[in-house]
């Protein structure tokens, strides 16, 4: 499970390595952890709105704006706890859905709706990409290849 992999990966990054910036454009692992916490809260609300409202308009998440304004240089423990709690709450919610609920959707201001299944696929890919950033950041951005994906691993 991607969530547990993130938690294990961060546990194996030293305090000093949390701040290694692979290059000028990439986030260090510390910022990635804070981003994951904020993103999991934002996306969890989107999931709940798709289930509770009829075709809600889902506002995009401006990750750069959040990173600039929310002090991503602070300790990571609380953000890890928030990421863990939000992710597991989302998993529990998804496990309880009926077939009808899985067909619900939201309007993501694109030509196609975002379904619950699409939401889940996007979340797994997002967490996977951020996990790769956490794993690769302390190595100065030297990418540990993912043989199954041609994913962009930096911001």
Write structural notes for this entry.
This protein has 155 residues and is mostly helical. 55% of the residues lie in helices and 4% in strands. The protein contains six helices and two strands; from the N terminus they run H-H-H-H-H-E-E-H. A two-stranded antiparallel sheet has the order 1-2. Helix 1 packs parallel to helix 6, helix 2 packs parallel to helix 4 and helix 2 packs antiparallel against helix 6. The longest helix is centred in the N-terminal third of the chain and has 24 residues. The protein is elongated. It starts with a helix and ends in a 19-residue tail after the last helix. 30% of the residues are buried.
